[in-house]
Protein: dITP/XTP pyrophosphatase
Organism: Nguyenibacter vanlangensis
Amino acid sequence: MTISDTRRLAAGDTLVLASHNAGKLAEFSALLAGHGVTLVSAGQLGLPEPEETADSFAGNAALKARAAATASNLPALADDSGLCVAALDGAPGIYSARWAGPAKDFPAAMARIHAGIGGNPDRAAWFISVLCLAWPDGTLRTFEGRIDGRIAWPPRGGNGHGYDPVFQPVGEARTFAEMPEAEKNAISHRALAFVRFRDDCLPPAHP
Ligand SMILES: O=c1nc[nH]c2c1ncn2[C@H]1C[C@H](O)[C@@H](COP(=O)(O)OP(=O)(O)OP(=O)(O)O)O1
Ligand SMILES: [Mg+2]
Protein backbone atom coordinates (compact mmCIF):
# COMPACT_ATOMS: atom_id res chain seq x y z
CA MET A 1 0.00 0.00 0.00
CA THR A 2 1.30 3.45 -0.88
CA ILE A 3 0.94 6.54 1.31
CA SER A 4 -1.63 8.01 -1.05
CA ASP A 5 -3.91 4.98 -0.55
CA THR A 6 -4.61 6.09 3.02
CA ARG A 7 -4.82 9.84 2.42
CA ARG A 8 -7.86 11.46 4.00
CA LEU A 9 -9.58 14.78 3.53
CA ALA A 10 -9.18 17.14 6.50
CA ALA A 11 -11.72 19.46 8.11
CA GLY A 12 -11.73 22.72 6.14
CA ASP A 13 -10.83 21.05 2.84
CA THR A 14 -12.80 21.75 -0.30
CA LEU A 15 -14.10 18.73 -2.21
CA VAL A 16 -15.31 19.06 -5.79
CA LEU A 17 -18.38 17.03 -6.65
CA ALA A 18 -17.58 15.96 -10.20
CA SER A 19 -21.22 15.87 -11.27
CA HIS A 20 -23.69 18.01 -13.21
CA ASN A 21 -26.71 16.22 -11.70
CA ALA A 22 -28.65 18.44 -9.27
CA GLY A 23 -30.28 15.42 -7.60
CA LYS A 24 -26.88 13.92 -6.76
CA LEU A 25 -25.64 17.30 -5.48
CA ALA A 26 -28.58 17.51 -3.06
CA GLU A 27 -27.93 13.95 -1.83
CA PHE A 28 -24.19 14.46 -1.34
CA SER A 29 -24.76 17.79 0.43
CA ALA A 30 -26.96 15.96 2.96
CA LEU A 31 -24.55 13.01 3.29
CA LEU A 32 -21.55 15.32 3.84
CA ALA A 33 -23.25 17.52 6.45
CA GLY A 34 -21.24 17.75 9.66
CA HIS A 35 -17.96 16.48 8.22
CA GLY A 36 -16.41 19.96 7.94
CA VAL A 37 -15.68 19.56 4.23
CA THR A 38 -16.90 22.23 1.81
CA LEU A 39 -18.61 20.79 -1.25
CA VAL A 40 -18.46 22.67 -4.54
CA SER A 41 -19.91 21.17 -7.69
CA ALA A 42 -18.28 20.90 -11.10
CA GLY A 43 -21.17 22.98 -12.43
CA GLN A 44 -20.51 25.77 -9.93
CA LEU A 45 -16.84 25.80 -11.02
CA GLY A 46 -17.84 25.93 -14.68
CA LEU A 47 -16.05 22.65 -15.42
CA PRO A 48 -17.06 20.84 -18.62
CA GLU A 49 -19.09 17.61 -18.50
CA PRO A 50 -16.72 14.89 -19.75
CA GLU A 51 -17.96 12.35 -22.26
CA GLU A 52 -18.54 9.02 -20.49
CA THR A 53 -16.64 6.74 -22.83
CA ALA A 54 -15.78 3.87 -20.44
CA ASP A 55 -17.62 0.54 -20.46
CA SER A 56 -18.16 0.25 -16.68
CA PHE A 57 -19.49 2.32 -13.79
CA ALA A 58 -16.00 2.33 -12.24
CA GLY A 59 -14.39 3.45 -15.49
CA ASN A 60 -16.80 6.34 -15.96
CA ALA A 61 -16.54 7.39 -12.30
CA ALA A 62 -12.74 7.46 -12.62
CA LEU A 63 -12.88 9.48 -15.80
CA LYS A 64 -15.22 12.10 -14.29
CA ALA A 65 -13.29 12.34 -10.99
CA ARG A 66 -9.91 12.65 -12.73
CA ALA A 67 -11.12 15.33 -15.12
CA ALA A 68 -12.47 17.47 -12.25
CA ALA A 69 -9.44 16.97 -9.98
CA THR A 70 -7.04 17.89 -12.76
CA ALA A 71 -9.02 20.96 -13.86
CA SER A 72 -9.58 22.29 -10.33
CA ASN A 73 -6.36 21.13 -8.62
CA LEU A 74 -8.62 19.94 -5.77
CA PRO A 75 -9.73 16.47 -4.65
CA ALA A 76 -12.83 15.48 -6.62
CA LEU A 77 -15.55 12.91 -5.99
CA ALA A 78 -17.51 11.44 -8.88
CA ASP A 79 -20.53 9.14 -8.83
CA ASP A 80 -21.35 6.92 -11.76
CA SER A 81 -24.60 5.14 -11.20
CA GLY A 82 -27.52 3.52 -12.89
CA LEU A 83 -30.54 1.29 -12.76
CA CYS A 84 -30.13 -2.33 -13.87
CA VAL A 85 -33.23 -4.36 -14.79
CA ALA A 86 -33.01 -8.16 -14.66
CA ALA A 87 -35.57 -8.73 -17.44
CA LEU A 88 -33.53 -6.39 -19.67
CA ASP A 89 -30.24 -8.22 -19.01
CA GLY A 90 -29.06 -5.37 -16.77
CA ALA A 91 -30.05 -2.46 -19.04
CA PRO A 92 -30.09 0.49 -18.93
CA GLY A 93 -27.11 0.15 -16.52
CA ILE A 94 -24.28 2.50 -17.49
CA TYR A 95 -26.62 3.96 -20.14
CA SER A 96 -29.24 5.08 -17.58
CA ALA A 97 -28.64 8.80 -18.14
CA ARG A 98 -28.42 8.33 -21.91
CA TRP A 99 -31.80 6.54 -22.04
CA ALA A 100 -33.32 9.81 -20.83
CA GLY A 101 -31.60 11.73 -23.64
CA PRO A 102 -30.24 15.29 -23.59
CA ALA A 103 -33.67 16.59 -22.48
CA LYS A 104 -33.43 14.32 -19.38
CA ASP A 105 -36.83 12.85 -20.23
CA PHE A 106 -37.08 10.30 -17.41
CA PRO A 107 -40.83 9.65 -17.93
CA ALA A 108 -39.90 8.41 -21.43
CA ALA A 109 -36.99 6.32 -20.08
CA MET A 110 -39.24 4.76 -17.43
CA ALA A 111 -41.86 3.97 -20.09
CA ARG A 112 -39.14 2.29 -22.18
CA ILE A 113 -38.25 0.08 -19.20
CA HIS A 114 -41.90 -0.77 -18.62
CA ALA A 115 -42.40 -1.64 -22.30
CA GLY A 116 -39.21 -3.71 -22.35
CA ILE A 117 -40.30 -5.82 -19.37
CA GLY A 118 -43.69 -6.37 -21.02
CA GLY A 119 -45.41 -9.43 -19.55
CA ASN A 120 -42.23 -10.80 -17.97
CA PRO A 121 -43.07 -11.65 -14.33
CA ASP A 122 -39.45 -10.96 -13.29
CA ARG A 123 -39.53 -7.35 -12.12
CA ALA A 124 -36.22 -7.45 -10.23
CA ALA A 125 -33.97 -4.42 -10.53
CA TRP A 126 -31.06 -2.85 -8.69
CA PHE A 127 -29.30 0.47 -8.48
CA ILE A 128 -25.49 0.66 -8.52
CA SER A 129 -23.39 3.62 -7.45
CA VAL A 130 -19.63 3.68 -7.88
CA LEU A 131 -17.88 6.58 -6.19
CA CYS A 132 -14.40 7.60 -7.21
CA LEU A 133 -12.24 10.04 -5.28
CA ALA A 134 -9.45 11.49 -7.39
CA TRP A 135 -6.57 13.58 -6.03
CA PRO A 136 -4.95 16.20 -8.27
CA ASP A 137 -1.92 13.90 -8.67
CA GLY A 138 -4.19 11.31 -10.31
CA THR A 139 -4.45 8.90 -7.37
CA LEU A 140 -7.84 7.18 -7.22
CA ARG A 141 -10.00 5.47 -4.58
CA THR A 142 -13.16 3.59 -5.58
CA PHE A 143 -16.20 2.54 -3.54
CA GLU A 144 -19.36 0.70 -4.63
CA GLY A 145 -22.91 0.47 -3.29
CA ARG A 146 -25.94 -1.50 -4.46
CA ILE A 147 -29.60 -1.68 -3.49
CA ASP A 148 -31.98 -4.38 -4.73
CA GLY A 149 -35.62 -3.87 -5.52
CA ARG A 150 -38.25 -4.14 -8.24
CA ILE A 151 -39.77 -2.03 -10.99
CA ALA A 152 -43.15 -0.57 -10.00
CA TRP A 153 -45.71 0.59 -12.55
CA PRO A 154 -47.15 3.19 -12.93
CA PRO A 155 -44.50 5.61 -11.57
CA ARG A 156 -45.34 6.93 -8.08
CA GLY A 157 -44.09 9.86 -5.97
CA GLY A 158 -42.68 13.32 -6.45
CA ASN A 159 -39.43 13.23 -4.45
CA GLY A 160 -35.94 12.35 -5.59
CA HIS A 161 -34.80 12.33 -9.21
CA GLY A 162 -34.27 10.14 -12.26
CA TYR A 163 -35.83 6.68 -12.04
CA ASP A 164 -36.92 7.04 -8.39
CA PRO A 165 -40.69 6.88 -9.21
CA VAL A 166 -40.40 3.28 -10.53
CA PHE A 167 -37.89 1.84 -8.04
CA GLN A 168 -39.28 0.01 -5.03
CA PRO A 169 -36.56 -1.25 -2.66
CA VAL A 170 -36.83 -4.80 -1.27
CA GLY A 171 -39.03 -4.84 1.84
CA GLU A 172 -40.54 -1.40 1.06
CA ALA A 173 -44.09 -0.64 -0.12
CA ARG A 174 -43.07 2.84 -1.33
CA THR A 175 -40.98 3.83 -4.31
CA PHE A 176 -37.84 5.92 -3.73
CA ALA A 177 -39.82 8.94 -4.96
CA GLU A 178 -42.44 8.38 -2.23
CA MET A 179 -39.81 8.35 0.53
CA PRO A 180 -38.51 11.50 2.28
CA GLU A 181 -34.97 12.40 1.15
CA ALA A 182 -33.49 11.35 4.51
CA GLU A 183 -35.03 7.86 4.27
CA LYS A 184 -33.74 7.26 0.76
CA ASN A 185 -30.36 8.64 1.85
CA ALA A 186 -30.16 6.07 4.67
CA ILE A 187 -30.48 3.02 2.37
CA SER A 188 -29.67 3.97 -1.22
CA HIS A 189 -26.89 2.60 -3.42
CA ARG A 190 -25.25 6.04 -3.19
CA ALA A 191 -25.54 6.11 0.61
CA LEU A 192 -23.97 2.63 0.89
CA ALA A 193 -21.04 3.63 -1.32
CA PHE A 194 -20.77 6.90 0.59
CA VAL A 195 -20.42 5.10 3.96
CA ARG A 196 -17.40 3.24 2.59
CA PHE A 197 -15.91 6.46 1.21
CA ARG A 198 -16.64 8.23 4.52
CA ASP A 199 -14.98 5.56 6.64
CA ASP A 200 -11.80 5.61 4.55
CA CYS A 201 -11.49 9.20 3.35
CA LEU A 202 -13.41 11.72 5.49
CA PRO A 203 -12.56 13.39 8.78
CA PRO A 204 -14.92 12.36 11.64
CA ALA A 205 -18.33 14.08 11.69
CA HIS A 206 -19.21 16.65 14.33
CA PRO A 207 -22.99 16.96 14.65
O1 LIG B 1 -30.64 7.55 -6.94
C1 LIG B 1 -31.08 7.53 -8.09
N1 LIG B 1 -32.39 7.69 -8.34
C2 LIG B 1 -32.89 7.71 -9.57
N2 LIG B 1 -32.14 7.56 -10.68
C3 LIG B 1 -30.83 7.39 -10.50
C4 LIG B 1 -30.24 7.36 -9.23
N3 LIG B 1 -28.92 7.16 -9.35
C5 LIG B 1 -28.69 7.08 -10.66
N4 LIG B 1 -29.84 7.21 -11.36
C6 LIG B 1 -29.99 7.18 -12.84
C7 LIG B 1 -30.36 8.54 -13.36
C8 LIG B 1 -29.06 9.16 -13.69
O2 LIG B 1 -29.09 10.18 -14.68
C9 LIG B 1 -28.26 7.96 -14.15
C10 LIG B 1 -26.83 8.11 -13.74
O3 LIG B 1 -26.01 8.50 -14.81
P1 LIG B 1 -24.63 9.23 -14.46
O4 LIG B 1 -23.86 9.41 -15.68
O5 LIG B 1 -24.00 8.54 -13.29
O6 LIG B 1 -25.14 10.64 -13.88
P2 LIG B 1 -25.58 11.95 -14.65
O7 LIG B 1 -25.17 11.90 -16.08
O8 LIG B 1 -27.01 12.19 -14.37
O9 LIG B 1 -24.73 13.07 -13.90
P3 LIG B 1 -23.10 13.14 -13.78
O10 LIG B 1 -22.53 12.12 -14.72
O11 LIG B 1 -22.75 14.54 -14.16
O12 LIG B 1 -22.78 12.85 -12.35
O13 LIG B 1 -28.81 6.83 -13.44
MG1 LIG C 1 -23.32 11.27 -16.56
About this structure: The mean pLDDT is 95. The two ends are 32 Å apart (CA to CA).
